[in-house]
Amino acid sequence: MENKERTSEEILKEIMKVLDKIRPYLNSEGGDLEFIKFEDGIVYVKMMGACQDCGALDSTLTDGIEALLMEYVPEVIGVRNVVD
Fold it and tell me: Which of 25, 32, 40, 69 could form a disulfide with 48 if both were Cys (CB 3.0 to 4.6 A apart)?
């Protein structure tokens, strides 16, 4: 099987699909996230609502969001929270 490079559009579509699967769990806790950009293997998101001040924010980002994105989207190497 040929190993074909995926377009940035295909990668973004996969990222959004994973984020849409995560969103209901965040919403159930009063939080949410906004996709900002994907650049150099890093997905930038802005955590919103209850997620902003949550004590488990770092764990949610790395053990949850980052782990799932890296599992389903091989081009993702990390996730960063954008703070205003």
Answer: 32
